From TrEMBL:
<keyword id="KW-0812">Transmembrane</keyword>
<keyword id="KW-1133">Transmembrane helix</keyword>
<keyword id="KW-0813">Transport</keyword>
<dbReference type="InterPro" id="IPR035906">
    <property type="entry name" value="MetI-like_sf"/>
</dbReference>
<protein>
    <submittedName>
        <fullName>ABC transporter permease</fullName>
    </submittedName>
</protein>
<feature type="transmembrane region" description="Helical">
    <location>
        <begin position="60"/>
        <end position="82"/>
    </location>
</feature>
<feature type="transmembrane region" description="Helical">
    <location>
        <begin position="175"/>
        <end position="196"/>
    </location>
</feature>
<keyword id="KW-1003">Cell membrane</keyword>
<feature type="transmembrane region" description="Helical">
    <location>
        <begin position="122"/>
        <end position="141"/>
    </location>
</feature>
<comment type="similarity">
    <text>Belongs to the binding-protein-dependent transport system permease family.</text>
</comment>
<dbReference type="Pfam" id="PF00528">
    <property type="entry name" value="BPD_transp_1"/>
</dbReference>
<keyword id="KW-0472">Membrane</keyword>
<dbReference type="InterPro" id="IPR000515">
    <property type="entry name" value="MetI-like"/>
</dbReference>
<feature type="transmembrane region" description="Helical">
    <location>
        <begin position="216"/>
        <end position="239"/>
    </location>
</feature>
<feature type="domain" description="ABC transmembrane type-1">
    <location>
        <begin position="56"/>
        <end position="236"/>
    </location>
</feature>
<feature type="transmembrane region" description="Helical">
    <location>
        <begin position="94"/>
        <end position="116"/>
    </location>
</feature>
Length: 250
């Protein structure tokens, strides 16, 4: 009942915002600069074939590949840093420093290296999602219960047993928290990569429509990008509930 009430408030708040936006856009009456939500939805419907068939698949593929690479590399580096102190001392400062570099500044370099292929967009997506996954897994591994560790050691557990039966399960909640952040950032990364250099994709289509001063068509793929981000986020939530069933019963 509480969840239903909270969602009702969210729906009400979004409805009020959209209503104010619609009224403001109609009063301003300059759709080429400030389109209304209804005009955006109409334009989205008009462009549905081009967006869903030609531009949504490349963006979704970029997000999936980028996230997969970030999960594999980020988890591997986090485990390595947790296992070996010298690796943590060598890579953790570099990991932090990498986040001080604006992604928008590196995206053109990736286009220069990889051209307009999907890999330039994947590189941007990996760069923007690698950090939250790595840090969340690393912090999750370090959060394992010391008392349980000592108990397992006294019972003759090996380092391998402790890692698989204590450290990894302890890191799962943090991993999924980081993955939720990474999923939303992956949409931004894919859009940035497509905005700066691509031949297809929702970000590319939005930039193309901007040159034609079709503001409703600029917003249409943005709405679709937002929907993609929400869908991926909900998928992570479903996976989290499946793999962390033990936490739901606590």
């Amino acid at each position: 009942m509480k969840k239903i009430t909270s969602y009702s408030w969210s729906i009400l708040f979004v409805t009020i915002l959209l209503g104010l936006w619609e009224i403001s856009a109609r009063l301003y009456d300059k759709s080429f600069l400030f389109p209304s939500p209804s005009a955006i939805l109409i334009r989205l419907w008009e462009l549905k074939t081009e967006l869903f068939i030609h531009h949504l698949p490349p963006t979704a593929l970029t997000i999936l590949i980028g996230l997969s690479i970030s999960i594999m590399l980020g988890s591997t580096l986090a485990i390595a840093m947790y296992s070996k102190k010298p690796i943590e001392q060598a890579f953790y400062p570099i990991l932090i420093a990498s986040q001080t570099i604006p992604v928008i500044a590196l995206a053109p370099i990736f286009v220069l290296w990889f051209g307009y292929s999907i890999w330039s967009k994947v590189a941007v997506t990996v760069l923007i999602t690698f950090f939250p996954i790595t840090v969340s897994v690393f912090d999750g591994l370090r959060s394992s219960d010391r008392n349980l560790r000592e108990l397992m050691l006294t019972m003759g557990a090996s380092a391998k047993d402790i890692f698989y039966k204590l450290d990894l399960p302890s890191a799962l909640p943090s991993f999924f928290s980081g993955l939720k952040v990474a999923v939303t950032l992956s949409v931004i990364g894919a859009a940035i990569g497509e905005w700066l250099g691509a031949q297809a994709g929702l970000g590319y289509f939005s930039r193309r429509m901007m040159t034609q001063f079709d503001s409703a068509a600029v917003f249409a793929p943005i709405v679709l990008l937002s929907a993609v981000g929400i869908i991926f986020f909900l998928l992570v939530v479903v996976l989290e509930k499946h793999f962390l069933q033990w936490r739901n019963h606590q």
